[in-house]
Amino acid sequence: MTLPEYIENHTTPADPVLNAVERWAHLHTAQPQMICGPVEGTLLTILTRSTDAKTAVEIGSFVGYSTICIARGLSSGGRLHAFEIHEEFEAPIRRHLEMAGVGERVVLHIGDAKQLLEKTMCGMDATPAEVDFAFIDAEKI
Questions:
Q1: What is the pLDDT of residues 73-107, one digit of tens each?
Q2: Which helix (H) or strand (E) holds 55?
Q3: Most CB atoms within 10 A, among 13, 15, 52, 113?
Q4: 3-state SS of 71-138?
Q5: Which own/partner pairs from 44-52 qualify as long-range (CB within 8 Å, at least 24 positions apart)?
């Protein structure tokens, strides 16, 4: 048995909402393999929760699978700033966040994170906001 098989066999399966998000990606996108999946999604939730993150940043939401996982791990009152460059994914991401019941925890930014990040995460005096957790899962160029 390979390590990935072992992990999959000994990890709680994804819930129906995440299964629905994954199915949507398979039916409506050319690259459904870009979803992080149940093992990595569980890890994102655990990492976010274990850091007691109040402010998180995700660069590259795709259809919202990892966004849901991170948002679920945020501490009470926490906020996730999620950046997605492709505007055609905005409606599905928002729908998936609402399905998961985490829409109020996520601020979705549509556009190039290289351009939006500083404006979004810096105060009036250009001091960067404190970020407790960051996940970069976008094209890295």
A1: 999 999 999 999 999 999 999 999 999 999 999 99
A2: strand 55-59
A3: 113
A4: HHHCCCCCEEEEEECCHHHHHHHHHHHHHHCCHHHEEEEECCHHHHHHHHHECCCCCECCCCEEEECC
A5: 44/69, 44/70, 44/73, 44/135, 45/69, 45/70, 45/72, 45/73, 46/73, 47/73, 47/133, 48/72, 48/73, 48/74, 48/133, 49/73, 49/74, 49/75, 51/132, 51/133, 52/132
Bridge pairing between strands 79-84 and 133-136? unpaired
Q: How far apart are CA 64 and CA 84, in angstroms?
A: 9
Tokens 């906020």 locate to: 79
Lowest mean pLDDT among 24-28, 30-34, 73-77, 100-104: 30-34
> One-letter amino acid identity for 132?
D
Q: Take residue 31 and report the two structure tokens written for it.
A: 């690259």
Residue indicated by tokens 């460059």: 85
Higher pLDDT, 94 or 130: 94
